[in-house]
Here is the input.
Amino acid sequence: MLVGSVWIILSDYIVSKMFESKQLFSLISILKGWMFVVITGILLYFLIRGKLYTLHLSESKLQNTLEELQKTNAELSQTQEKLAVQYKKLAKNQAKIRELSFFDSLTGLPNKNHFQLVLEKAIKEAYLKNQQLAIIYIDIDNLNKVNNTLGHIAGDSVLKKIANRLKSVIADKGFVARLTGDEFAIILYNFIDIHLLDYFIRKFTSIFNKPWKIMDYEFYITASIGIAIFPNDGNDATTLLENAHKALNSAKEKGKNIFCFYNKEMDKALQEQFELEWSLRKAIEQNQFKLFYQPIIDLKRMKICGAEALIRWIHPEKGFIPPLSFIPIAEQTGLISKIGEWVISRSVSDLKEIKMAINDSFYVSVNVSLKEFSTSNFVDNVLYSINSLKIEPTEFGIEITESVAMVDPQKTIGILNFLKERGIKILLDDFGTGYSSLNYLKQLPIDIVKIDRSFIQNMTYDQKEQKMAKSLIDLSHILDLKVVAEGIEDERQAELLKTFSCDFGQGYLFGKPMPKEELLELAKRF
Here is the structure.
């Protein structure tokens, strides 16, 4: 606009100076005006066109931007949907993790972690309200029998049924959880007196009094129960649970299928057991064991024909420690394998020395526990000891009990057959005291059965005992087995057994367990 004004003023001035004629000035002014209009129009055209082009470009950019925004929005929507799906999966997984963390997948019961949290809360409430609560620790005694006979699916079915029965008994009076494979625990809230606790314990034990029907079979399953009471037996969850478990172990040691309350004497017993275990490890390292031998007599010839090797622990401070005191601990701790290796090695070594002094046929037998018999290197240890000392395998015997043989009959038969094929004697100890099947007994590759002393001790004045002893001897002979009668203490018993055609005798009448040197002296008199 400023340029136009300057153009008009300046052009008028120049034209007036150049053309003095008014007509010519007017004509030129008209031409000048049109020229201005034309030039102005052209300039405005290009200016507007430039602006329109700029607007067109801006509109295209805006359109492209809008399309990109719409595309991004669509992608965001898809991402949001995917995130929603992932969130649902995450929430589901978190719920599953929580369930696995706090619930048993098989029975649906709370697990040990859940039980611990609930117990801690229950203790706090009981403390504030000055109430009592009880921890009832339950272990299923013979679930392995179901697993080994019918398989783990059947065993799992039993566990589910037990869980349901426990829940139905306790209802809203407590809290039930499965702690481990065959262990359950119950919190009984605010019981007023011992009679109420006794009522629930007997309800729990009654669960196991009835037979369990599984796959057309009926099983009797028993349970051992340990009980600890807050606040008498502990003020925190860990202590209460530990003390209930101690009570449970005491119930199992007393023969299972019973319940036992915790008492502080259990701690003393556990301390003594711990010290005994520590001493037992030292005994192995320091060679504190010694083998004694109880002679076995041929009742027909009245000559010594063998001996049973019996381990003795001579403690440097406590003196003689009986096998019943340390063998169970050795089995629990796994030390029985090392002790068993030592017994086999030492008995074979002693046998070699005894055979040099006794020209007649003679054998030594050793007792083998279930834990020792089940170890993978048991057979190798026996064969290595026999071969390394170059004794005749027929001069060495393995004694197992019916309970050991019947844990896994097929496996037992396989191992015993392998040993017998190499000439080793197989003896069945404590015959008549177990519950084994005669069908399995006739399959076992046994050479000799040892009739338990319980059938011998009252035989001289009890006709029934005599008949039972004679029946066992006759049965053994029918199966082509030799018989050793254990626990013979007087001549009358020995004479009766001779009339029953018993092959061999063992007992205090012939000699107590004695060191190897005394056995050699005794052999000279037979």
Summary: DSSP finds 18 helices and 16 strands in the chain. The longest helix spans residues 22-102. The longest strand covers residues 303-315. Residues 2-84 form one domain.
